[in-house]
Amino acid sequence: MPAKQIIIHVDMDAFYASVEVRDDPSLKGKPLIIGSLPSERGVVSTCSYEARKFGVHSAMNIKEAYRLCPQGIYMHPNFDKYIEVSRQIRAIWYDYAVKMETIALDEAYLDVTYSAGTFERAGEMAREIKARVLSETGLTCSVGVAYSKTAAKTASEEKKPDGYFEIPTAQDFVDLMIDRDVRALYTVGAKTAEKLHRIGIHTVRDISDRSDEIIERFGKHGRLITELAAGIDDRKVVEYKPEDAKSLSREITFQEDTGNFELLKDVLVLIAISVEDRMRRHGLHGSGITLKLTYGDMKSITRSRVVTSADNAGTIYSETVRLLEQVEKRPVRLIGAGVYNMSGDEGRQMTIDDYLEEAEEEKRRIIDIRLGELQQRYGLDFAAHVDDICHGTVLYRTVEYMRKHFPKS
Question: Can you list the domains of the chain with their CATH numbers?
Answer without folding.
Answer: 1-166 (3.30.70.270), 174-229 (1.10.150.20), 242-405 (3.30.1490.100)
